[in-house]
Structures are given as structure tokens and as C-alpha cells.
């Protein structure tokens, strides 16, 4: 009996040993293919999102030599929940004037700022310091539900005029400089067709920076991977393919609490209920709970007795 058992074991070993080295190259090829696919996907994502875009200053309106009024526009804050863009509008001095009085207005004039259906009037008196005002403009053609790929459009109309001696309003040529940078957002300005020749209408395309969009997508992808791993562990233990290891209970429980922490770590802190929450986060949290329940049910049924 001992000889026959040993012979059978030897025969089994002879057939099994060649299969083990043969599977090693195949696994190495699969691993290399997975890593190459991740690198290609990462490169395509970077090319699509364009994370290297840097903010710049753009200028609109009349030429620098003909401008009688110079304005500098700087976006301060974007509130996608309330669909508003906060913009600081500053009047800058004529660069040809280098004396101390260049920071004060040299005439009385009026600046009209149209935002939606409202028209704001900024009066500047001769000798007064050049003003700086802040207004909120509506964000249109977008919704925060599309986070992190949400995009918006905002518009404003600018005009300047002074009162002549006979009491009529004389339009003044305007030159506007726009800073297109904002933390977490990219603001691209372009000139649109105004209703009258003395007005300058600008449109702003607002979207999140490539880094924010990439990080948001990566976080939701990590949530999917974590819940799939949890479901694999719970399902294989429940059906009896893998043995019960009680230490995995802590890992599955940690996933349940880690998913909300990942979700709330998203840049911009979007409110719960965006489309990716419905497509990813909500079912992932439910899946993590189901995975833990499957594992506990298998442990209660087949776990080691005291």
C-alpha cells in the first residue's frame, strides 16, 4: 500500500509539476497587458482632459491707443449650486500716464454693466480713485449634476459714456483685459455680437480644470474597484469557493465607511445627487453592505465552532 501510494503521488507530481512553470509566463503576459492597458488609458485621459492648460490674459474691445476706458475683469468664485459667477471689475489707468495722478479719473463718466436683465451703473467722478466693483453673473447652459464634467456659459455687456456740454451721452471706446484663471476652474472669454456698436458683449465658457475632472473620475473609478473587490470576497465565501477568514470582516466593514470618505473628498465638494452618485456611489455603498452581509451569513452557517 505504501509503495502504491507513493507511486501514485509521484505520478501525480510528475503531471502537476510541468503545469506550474507553464502558468508563470502566461500570468506575466496577462500582468504586462493589464499594465500596458492602464498606461494607454492614462495617456488618453490626459490628452482628452488637457491638464497642462495654463490661465492667460486676453484682451477685447478697441485698440490700446484708442481706448478711453480700460477695464480689468477677474473671476473670483464660481458657485455651481446657485448658478452664479462672481466677477471683479476694476478700472485701470492709462499706461501712458506715469504720474501719481494716473490712479484717479481724469473726467466724469459712467460705466454700464448688463448682467442678465439687470443693468448696473457705476459713476466715476473726475479726480476720484479708479473704482473696483464686484457683481454676480448667471451661469447658463449647464448643471452641477454633470460633475466633474459640468460646463457653463455666462455673459455680460459693458459700455461707457460721458455727458457732453449739451447734456447728451457720448460713448467712450472700451478696452477690456480678462484674466482666465480661477482655482479649480477654467474661464475662457470670447467676444460676442453686441446690440449696438458702442457696447462690448463678452461670453465666458466656464468648466472645471482638467486636474479636477481627472481626479473626480479617478475617485469614482476607485469606488467601483473597491466595491467590486468587496463583492468578490463576499460572494466567493458565501458560495463556498473560498474558506472563511474572519479577518476579512474588518476589511469589508472598512470599505463601507471608506466609500463616503472618498466621495466627500472630491474637489469642489458637489452636493449629493449628481449623476455619478446615482451611477456609481449609491449602488457601490449598497454593494459594500451586501458583501459584508454575505460574508457574515457564510460565517454564521459554516464558521468554526467553539
UniProtKB/TrEMBL annotation:
InterPro entries: DUF4436. It holds the Pfam family DUF4436. Keywords: Membrane, Transmembrane, Transmembrane helix. Residues 1-20 are annotated as: Disordered. The chain crosses the membrane at residues 28-49, 211-239, 246-266, 278-300. This is DUF4436 domain-containing protein. It comes from Inquilinus ginsengisoli.
Amino acid at each position: 500500500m505504501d509503495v502504491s501510494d507513493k507511486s501514485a503521488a509521484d505520478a501525480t507530481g510528475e503531471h502537476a509539476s510541468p503545469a506550474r512553470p507553464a502558468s508563470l509566463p502566461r500570468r506575466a503576459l496577462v500582468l504586462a497587458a493589464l499594465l500596458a492597458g492602464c498606461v494607454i488609458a492614462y495617456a488618453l485621459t490626459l490628452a482628452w482632459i488637457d491638464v497642462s492648460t495654463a490661465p492667460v490674459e486676453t484682451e477685447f474691445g478697441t485698440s490700446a491707443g484708442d481706448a478711453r476706458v480700460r477695464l480689468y475683469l477677474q473671476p473670483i468664485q464660481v458657485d455651481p449650486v446657485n448658478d452664479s459667477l462672481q466677477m471683479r471689475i476694476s478700472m485701470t489707468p492709462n499706461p501712458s500716464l506715469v504720474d501719481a495722478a494716473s490712479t484717479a479719473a481724469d473726467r466724469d463718466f459712467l460705466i454700464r454693466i448688463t448682467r442678465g436683465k439687470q443693468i448696473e451703473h457705476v459713476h466715476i467722478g473726475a479726480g476720484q480713485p479708479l473704482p473696483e466693483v464686484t457683481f454676480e453673473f448667471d451661469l447658463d447652459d449647464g448643471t452641477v449634476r454633470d460633475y466633474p464634467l459640468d460646463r457653463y456659459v455666462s455673459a455680460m455687456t459693458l459700455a461707457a459714456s460721458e455727458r457732453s456740454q449739451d447734456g447728451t451721452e457720448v460713448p467712450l471706446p472700451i478696452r477690456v483685459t480678462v484674466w482666465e484663471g480661477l482655482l479649480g476652474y477654467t474661464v475662457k472669454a470670447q467676444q460676442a455680437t453686441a446690440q449696438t456698436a458702442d457696447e462690448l458683449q463678452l461670453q465666458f465658457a466656464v468648466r472645471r480644470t482638467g486636474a479636477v475632472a481627472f481626479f473626480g473620475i479617478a475617485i469614482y473609478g476607485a469606488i467601483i474597484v473597491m466595491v467590486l473587490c468587496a463583492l468578490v470576497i463576499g460572494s466567493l465565501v458565501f458560495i463556498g469557493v473560498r474558506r472563511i477568514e474572519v479577518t476579512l470582516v474588518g476589511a469589508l466593514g472598512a470599505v463601507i465607511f471608506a466609500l463616503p470618505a472618498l466621495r466627500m473628498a472630491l474637489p469642489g465638494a458637489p452636493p449629493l445627487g449628481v449623476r455619478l452618485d446615482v451611477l456609481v456611489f449609491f449602488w457601490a455603498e449598497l454593494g459594500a453592505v451586501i458583501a459584508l452581509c454575505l460574508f457574515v451569513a457564510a460565517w454564521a452557517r459554516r464558521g468554526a465552532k467553539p
